[in-house]
Amino acid sequence: MLLVSEPALGADEKQALTAVIDSGWVTMGDRVREFEQAFARMHEVDDSIAVGSCTAALHLILHALGIGPGDEVLVPSLTFVATANSVLYVGARPVFVDIGSTAVPLMSLDDAEAKCTSRTRAVILVHFAGYLAHRDAWQSFARRKDLLLIEDAAHAPGLPTVGTYGDAAAFSFYGNKNMTTAEGGAIIARSRALRETIRQARSHGMTSGTRQRLTARRPDYDVTILGFNYRMDELRAAVGLAQLKKLPEWNVVRERLSLAYRERIAAQCPSVLVPFEAEWSSTHHLMPVVLPVATNRQAIIDRLRKRGVQTTIHYPPVHRLTFYRDLYPDTLLPRTEEFARRELTLPLHPRMVQADVDLVVESLAGALDAESPVGAVA
Fold this sequence. Notes:
The protein is of the alpha/beta class.
């Protein structure tokens, strides 16, 4: 089966893990710090903070920024549920914003403007599929509305502009991301004071870590703020350091494969829409396409699977998931809902070659040709 996503792990990662095990120090220590500094250099910022997941990163950012009960945070519904969950974690209310269009499935500035109230404190931008939101427009909006600006950059590690939009950005290193530590995440924050608050809060609010106490030969510590257990360990950091060295090359491969997809789809599946313009700044995390209106998507999925091609959907709209539908039953986002009904995610990862793209597109064309008006409504 040609998978939608596949981590690229090998000898370098094995060697890195072995070195950690041989060192005898597996909790947060020197490798975590080295990874934080390397990740910051890649994004041309002063520092970063490694954490256990992107969800932890979002929660820590909102917590450290003082978002809480009575506050509203603008979020897209076209995202993974963690984006909205993190808002609930701090006691605030997520306000779901529609996308601009099926061709540009990023959060709509116009709808964000319409949904701002006196309680709106922040906006979380999601760089969907790795395609970057327009920085200048969102920065202007945030300044005009006096809002905190946060990036959910789970799909977009490796571009220097990512993490520079506003107050902070959260990254993911989950197994299906452009680089992986199995589980893990990172935070970039503009303010040094904010970084220090986040750094302390990720480890129970303690004033020192285990490695620091060993080095200082002092066993005592204090807890001065509310904190969480959101640390990254040495094993994941070691894998992250190995992966980080390859990330720029992998992102180039993803771009090349994405362009090949666009060319093949235009030629063989002209009724299929590929969102965004080819020149759009992106890490090319996903390969989303939008099927024709009358298409039976499940039939397409089944036919591709029979050809050995996995597909998936990004995403079921968060506001339509049972938990959020029960919380906010009156939420209607017509453009998001239309996109989600027709979206299909094709395989895209650095282990693929041109022949894989050809197979996917040929299979998609064949599956679409097999469709009929009767099948489309079945």
